[in-house]
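User: My instructor asked us to take a sequence, write out its structure as tokens, and then describe one feature of it. I'm not sure where to start. Here is the sequence I was given:
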Amino acid sequence: MRNLGISIYPLNFNNEEIKKYIAVASKYGFKRIFTCLISSEGTDLETIVNNFKDIVDFANEQGMHVIADVEPSVFERMNVSYDDLSIFKEMGLYGIRLDLGFSGLEESVMSFNKQGMKIELNMSSGTKYIDNILSYKPNVENILACHNFYPHIYTGLSYDHFIKCSKQFKSLGIRTAAFVNSKEAKFGPWPVEEGICTLEMHRDLPIDVQAKHLFATGLIDDVIIANQFASEEELKSLSKLNKNKLEFRVELQKNIPELEKKIVLDEEHFNRGDVSDYVIRSTQSRVKYKQQKFDPFNIVDIRRGDILIESSLYKRYAGELQIALKDMKNTGKTNVVGKIVDDEIFLLDYIEPWMKFGFVI
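Assistant: Let's start with the prediction itself. The structure tokens for your sequence are:
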């Protein structure tokens, strides 16, 4: 099951304000919370434990799992040994994320911690880090993985590197996560306000498009908003996403007939196995509605991302839905009934043979 998450930074904000944010996220079905202990430098241990415990306990009551970002220096400041994670459990944490790791042996030992906490690994480095840990025979059931996020503009991961790293962990059956950027949120663990995301290409995209893209790769299980406080509208939009099927946001022609509209929005769609370079083909509607007449009403030249339904001028193809993958000249028989919104056209590249997809207004 894929999950959504938020991020919180308790040391810089009023606890009650953060609890309200957690409650709203919980209302919309969010299940994960990322927080950062690395940025707690300069704060005394008692304050750290008390602040986090108050908020984490509340999050747990809301049915959410909290994982805190740590590194070896945090272990030193908090006087924690890798073979005794009890202080993190006392704070109510579900797990810890190792932004910087140890030698591999320590991670293996931590995965057997008596508290049953999850050990989340940084999956953005592209090294053989995970292979080294596995060589020490860890408890793989307690191992998770999560990408970094990047508050500085232009420093986010390249797409190719992201795919390489994600495949490395996903191929091992490890649960994965990555971060998206809220345009409304202004706060992170560091005083930089240029957006926070894993993939640099996501920095200026709508938050729901970022999440759709991560899920569409098939390599990310959990999507977490990196900055605090996302708007309720953003939380709501993410909650409406179909996490298991790519659904394109579309604009339909104002004069689209009701039958064509029903085919686009209400019918189940999947791409044929014998794929084309020019169109994605969903052919079941031509079978279901073969007795219906499809009059030509918008016969115009075709652009990539256009949604097409064949008119009855095409005889046995009448009623077939297609999505244009290239710009094409219209043969004079095809209705252009709508278009995928510009921000999501690139997601067409993720539709594979037999893959299911849908449309939403």
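For the description part of your assignment, you could build on this observation: The first helix runs from residue 15 to 27. Try explaining in your own words what that tells you about the chain.
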